[in-house]
Amino acid sequence: MKKQKTWFVTGASKGLGLSLVKQLLAAGYNVAATSRNAADLNQAVGNPNDEFLPLEMNIKSEQSVAEAIDLTVKHFGRIDVVVNNAGYGMLGSLEELSEEESYENFAVNVFGSLNVIRKAMPHLRAQGSGHIFNIASIGGFTGDFPGFGIYCATKFAVHGFTESLAAEIREFGVHATVVSPGYFRTDFLTSGSMATPANPIAEYKSVRDSQNQHENEINGNQGGDPEKAALAMIKVSEAENPPVHLFLGEDAYNMAYKKIESIKNDLETWKEVTVTTGFDA
């Protein structure tokens, strides 16, 4: 039964999504994988068989997402695990990124995932089981990165709606997990996965330094192994009581605790101001 689970993975032609799809197929799972370009996906996966269903999908189009979900159910009979992995990075200060650039990042990273959730949930709810993984980032838990304000905002949104989703779908026997990876050695920091502003402002030295660091120093030297991240997600998918929050990478673990300690310090330092704002008895 374990090997017959059907996974639906978006953004599967590269990065963590590709590692996950390859490992799932090697382990005997059924996998429907989506990409903007099916040819790229087929070439990347390189494993044509009945357990693999490559799908071309525009995650910003509700109709395109609905068609991909329906084709998956028609082909495999059900969906057990949904992975909202499609998305891209955005590096630029809040001032220099245009409305269009900012909106596009939200359209893919946030509203695209919501399209998938809306179209997958009727199937999961009807069968009374399932698991949705929403891929966020450690940048969705702590925003202390110059130049990543919009990207972090999209991933904070993923954290927020996943927590609510987990509470909403628990009664249907369906789980939701928000995944927060740290730095993993994928192509995420290359130009194909990371957008930069069309009109940069030279005065933002901290942002340009951050951009240079991520593009030329961190890229290719990330400490996280995407193959191990994929394996961790498969392990969590088989847990009877999976977590709502899954942080991946020692760096993510340390940054999460740094954020928790920072909030705790602010709470206790300003406790008197915080707790004395109610009506007088």
Task: Describe what this molecule looks like in 3D.
The protein is an alpha/beta fold. 48% of the residues lie in helices and 15% in strands. The protein is built from nine helices and nine strands. Strand 6, helix 5 (149-169) and strand 7 (174-181) form a beta-alpha-beta unit. The longest helix is centred in the middle third of the chain and has 29 residues, at 99-127. The radius of gyration is 20 Å and the shape is globular. The mean pLDDT is 93. InterPro entries: KR_dom (IPR057326), NAD(P)-bd_dom_sf (IPR036291), Sc_DH/Rdtase_CS (IPR020904), SDR_fam (IPR002347), SDR_oxidoreductase (IPR051911). Residues 5-187 form the Ketoreductase domain. This is SDR family NAD(P)-dependent oxidoreductase. Keywords: Oxidoreductase.
Helix and strand layout, with pairings?
Elements (H helix, E strand, L loop, with lengths): L5 E4 L5 H12 L3 E6 L2 H8 L6 E5 L5 H15 L4 E4 L4 E2 L8 H29 L2 E6 L13 H21 L4 E8 L12 E2 L9 H14 L7 H12 L7 E4 L1 H20 L1 H5 L6
Salient structural properties:
281 residues; alpha/beta; 9 helices
